[in-house]
Design goal:
Blueprint: E1 4-8, E2 15-19, E3 23-24, E4 30-31, E5 42-43, H1 49-52, E6 53-57, E7 64-68, E8 71-73, E9 79-81, H2 112-126, E10 132-133, E11 142-146, E12 149-154, H3 162-174, E13 178-183, H4 189-198, E14 202-205, E15 211-213, H5 216-224
Parallel strand pairs: 12-13, 13-14
Antiparallel strand pairs: 1-2, 3-4, 5-9, 6-7, 8-9, 10-11, 11-12, 14-15
Helix pairs in contact: 3-4
């Protein structure tokens, strides 16, 4: 069960009860970051990718993956970063046989960061590892990468274009990686046609955070996962 801590906003001094969100590990077990009830709450004044993620180890299978750092929005307008405890080493973790792929637990999308988080959690469910920010910034949206995969997340309100799909595919080709596109607003007709030709999986992220495959390569990826 996710733990809860009392969080006081340093700007307005309001106190909140914060519960750490739990995300599904690829083994099926829920994983939540360990909160530090004695740590210092800080206000988020700027964003840096390295500060957005932290490694959390699954107690069931011992796998460590990257999860978004816990944050809480105060009604005064301040975004609060909740302190995380450093997990103590307790010897070899308990191992168990891999479970069937768990049902995807969507993350409601309110911001561009939510869209990236939803895509990252979905890719982890498919079996991709070491998800991180892509080395090259795409012309639109946000690029994330995993071992052997390059993904683009487009949180804008315009459909992805033919050029968007081709740029993603070309960048992936130079890195000898597969690629996948996530869009909030869908795709232009010629972009979908070109993606089918190139074998690029296309997903639409609805506001609940559930990726919906919209072409055959996406349906195949959703069914088979990472290879």
């Amino acid at each position: 069960m996710s733990e809860s801590v009392s969080v006081r906003c340093p700007a307005c001094r309001r106190e909140h009860l914060y519960t750490a969100p739990a995300y599904p590990c690829v083994c099926g077990a829920p994983v939540a970051p360990p909160l530090d009830p004695h740590g210092t709450v800080t206000a988020v004044t700027h964003r840096a990718w390295d500060d957005e993620w932290l490694g959390v180890r699954c107690a069931a299978c011992g796998r460590e993956t990257q999860w978004p750092r816990p944050e809480l929005g105060c009604p005064c307008g301040t975004m609060l970063r909740v302190p995380v405890a450093r997990a103590a080493a307790t010897g070899e973790p308990r191992r168990q046989a891999p479970a069937a792929r768990p049902a995807f637990q969507p993350i409601a999308i309110r911001t561009a960061r939510d869209a990236v988080t939803a895509a990252a959690v979905y890719l982890r469910r498919l079996g991709y590892r070491d998800i991180r920010r892509a080395d090259q910034r795409p012309p639109t949206g946000i690029g994330i990468a995993a071992h052997g995969l390059l993904a683009q997340v487009d949180p804008t309100v315009r459909p992805a274009t033919l050029r968007d799909v081709e740029c993603l595919w070309l960048t992936a080709m130079t890195e000898s990686a597969a690629c996948v596109y996530f869009s909030l607003a869908g795709y232009a007709p010629d972009a979908r046609t070109r993606a089918d030709t190139l074998g690029v999986p296309l997903f639409v992220l609805d506001l609940t955070g559930a990726p919906q495959p919209v072409n055959d390569p996406a349906h195949e990826l959703d069914a088979t996962g990472a290879r």
